[in-house]
């Protein structure tokens, strides 16, 4: 069911500073910021040869990232994203196996313009998992 690793997401309190660290200190290519109001975040992607790192900052007071940063003010790993061929087939298989899909269970459009779902961290070794249809 799982294909390749799409990205690892890191919540950050200051997106501009985090992007500068990856760009200026580590020499990585960093995308321009992209606001995703539906998800309550602003993101940039650090492009790597085999995957990406997504840096995410809260957008608005109801951002789920704001709560994460209250617990971890310096930021930290937020989720890991895997690619799947068919997000509905993957969702239905996971739910049939007892996994919990967050939200209303329906895919939303992610930062890459593709359908995404998030899976409950308690079902996946304490890690929030995002699935993205490719």
From TrEMBL:
Indicate the segments forming the VOC domain, all copies: 4-134
Provide the GO MF annotations for this entry: metal ion binding; methylmalonyl-CoA epimerase activity
Isomerase as UniProt keyword: yes
Q: Which CDD domains match?
A: MMCE (cd07249)
Q: Does the keyword Isomerase apply?
A: yes
Q: What keywords does the record list, in alphabetical order?
A: Cobalt, Isomerase, Metal-binding
Q: What are the EC numbers?
A: 5.1.99.1
Q: Which domain of life is it from?
A: Bacteria
User: For this chain's UniProt record, which GO biological process terms are given?
Assistant: L-methylmalonyl-CoA metabolic process
Any Pfam family from its record, for instance, is Glyoxalase_4
Which reaction equations make up its catalytic activity? (R)-methylmalonyl-CoA = (S)-methylmalonyl-CoA
Query: What PANTHER family does UniProt report for this protein, alphabetically?
Result: METHYLMALONYL-COA EPIMERASE, METHYLMALONYL-COA EPIMERASE, MITOCHONDRIAL
The family classification in the record reads: Belongs to the methylmalonyl-CoA epimerase family.
NCBIfam families xref list: metmalonyl_epim
Record-given protein name: methylmalonyl-CoA epimerase
